[in-house]
Amino acid sequence: MDYVQHRCSHDAHVHGQIMNRLKHYVALTKPGIIMGNLVSVAGGFLLGSRGHISASTFLAVMLGLALVIAGGCVLNNCIDRDIDALMQRTRNRPLVLKSVTLFEALVWGAVLSLCGFLTLLLFTNPLATAVAFAGLVIYAGLYSLGLKRTQHGTWVGSLAGAVPPLAGYCAASNQLDVAAAILFAMYVVWQFPHAYAIAVLHLQDYARASIPVLPLVRGVARVKHETPVYVAAFTGCALLLFLTHNTGWGYLVVLLCLGAAWIRSTWLNRNSADDRRWAKKSFVYSILMIMALSFMMSVDFVAPQTGFQGVAADSNGSLWRASKAALNGPTGI
Known about the structure:
The protein folds into two domains: 16-176, Tetracycline Repressor, domain 2 (Orthogonal Bundle); 177-301. The protein is 76% helix and 3% strand. The chain contains 16 helices and two strands. It has helices at residues 2-28, 31-49, 55-79, 81-84, 94-97, 102-123, 126-145, 153-161, 163-173, 178-201, 203-208, 214-217, 220-243, 249-268, 275-299, 319-328, and strands at residues 303-307, 310-314. Helix 3 (55-79) packs antiparallel against helix 6 (102-123) and helix 7 (126-145) runs antiparallel to helix 8 (153-161). The longest helix is centred in the first third of the chain and has 27 residues, at 2-28. The chain starts with a helix and ends in a 5-residue tail after the last helix. The relative contact order is 0.11.
């Protein structure tokens, strides 16, 4: 009986160690960042599909990009372990606590990234794979290795942050066109008010780590005055999807309503003494905006209508059209 109890206790201990180690490996991938990016990937893919949805390609691009993003986050953890130890919100990350070794983390990040690229290459197309590779180079290379610690960090980080929806679009359309350029531009511009809100919320952490974000270098007041301008610029970029006949009226209404509310909130409260409250509101609007637009471009796309008269714009794209196309397959001329 004693042997059985000892054996059970030992097995439970080993199981607990394994689960705890797996938890550390998962934490390195930053699951929250992965899920947030997959929302924009789905929006870009469904916009690029124009109603002709390939379920297998959709699953492949979601899985492939999830793996690439996870790999990039792990590599970012490896590079940022010194500054993570200085910031309160990151000081409990696995590499800081040494619950995972640097070598293990590097191998883990490389394996995840490689699996992601292979998934994209085998089951989507080379263009989407190349876009994802460029995003990883920008994020783990240009941004994490050096420019994050300079005043140019937000600019470079915005480029990396705009890659997932672009890769999703390319996986569906296999082309870089006007819609792809607009999609990329709007996500680049969106990163600025989003990142500035985060910087204000964690200002003391960035100060401890000597990361020269704009609120530290130029002051929070400067950020408060610039944010409405960036939100207006983002709204203008996003409006181009409608003006170029890529999205419908529903998308336009949601964009203008949320854009106006976000601009109003950041502008009217710019002189508020409570900087954190202002930043929290702007941050919530940034998340709400990108989730709403990703959803609307998924269901309110403009599907091309082909026939003997040529190609014409059809503004009646919908989830019903997309679901029907997925069941019946792409239709020819």
